[in-house]
Amino acid sequence: MSVITLSREKGSGGQSIAKQAAEKLSYSVVDKSLIIDVARELGVSEAAVERFDEHEPRKPGIGDWLRDVFMGTDPVFSAEAAPVFWPTQTMPTLVPTPPVQGEHILDRIEYLDVLRQLIRRIHHRGDAIIVGRGGQAILKNETDVLHVRIIAPLEIRCERVMAREKIGLEEARKGILVSDRARAEYLHEHFGMNWADPAMYHLTINTGLCSIKRASEMVLAAVPV
């Protein structure tokens, strides 16, 4: 009854590794389905929850924006203020997203509270691989959890994304950098942690040096018994 958290760079093969390992272990894979679960718990739309998800640089809701204004903080990230692990060349200006009429205005505190509850329920149930969503931060002190990070060199990731999405090199590279930035922002903003910090993980696998199958076998070998 163990749980694995799996953090992955876009194009590193992390999703495939999670699927292969889960099949061998008879575990469930928990990934974007958490968005649906959070939305259901809060009684809001999936779109409202997706504003806080890790796939795209987050545009804050009105509640976040007003809190920033009254606390005197600047809602625009500058390259100078950004942590060193953020690519900042294309850092977007953060503009509040207007709510849909009649929609509950979801804020970050509500989102994180429910996310933590759901991930802890999954941990209590066991037999799951949690892909992204800050699982490594929420469950960092649990001794029966294996924290895994999947990486690969940028050029290899570009090749994989080009083949998978049938796109050119520049588009693939841009998509990867946007994804990396979004995932780094997500973990830093919500949990105050560095996404790339090796001390957060029991195991980091470079799929530029091994096959996806071999990487999944490494994960299986490291699962707590």
What are the defining features of this structure?
225 residues; alpha/beta; Rossmann fold; five-stranded parallel beta sheet
CATH topology: Rossmann fold
Number-wise, the strands total 5
Oligomer: single chain
Kindly state the mean pLDDT as a whole number? 80
- Supply the helix-strand structural class: alpha/beta
* SSE topology string: EHEHHHHEHEHHEH
* Total number of helices: 9
Describe this protein's structure.
This protein has 225 residues and is of the alpha/beta class. The chain has one domain (3-222): 3-Layer(aba) Sandwich (Rossmann fold). The chain is built from 9 helices and 5 strands, in the order E-H-E-H-H-H-H-E-H-E-H-H-E-H. It has helices spanning 14-25, 33-42, 46-50, 62-71, 108-125, 135-138, 154-165, 169-191, 212-222; strands at 3-8, 28-30, 128-131, 145-151, 203-206. It has a 5-stranded parallel beta sheet, sandwiched between helices. Mean pLDDT is 80; it is low at 58-97.
List the helices and strands and how they pair.
Elements lengths: L2 E6 L5 H12 L2 E3 L2 H10 L3 H5 L11 H10 L36 H18 L2 E4 L3 H4 L6 E7 L2 H12 L3 H23 L11 E4 L5 H11 L3
Parallel strand pairs: 1-3, 1-4, 2-3, 4-5
Summarize the structure.
The chain contains nine helices and five strands, in the order βαβααααβαβααβα.
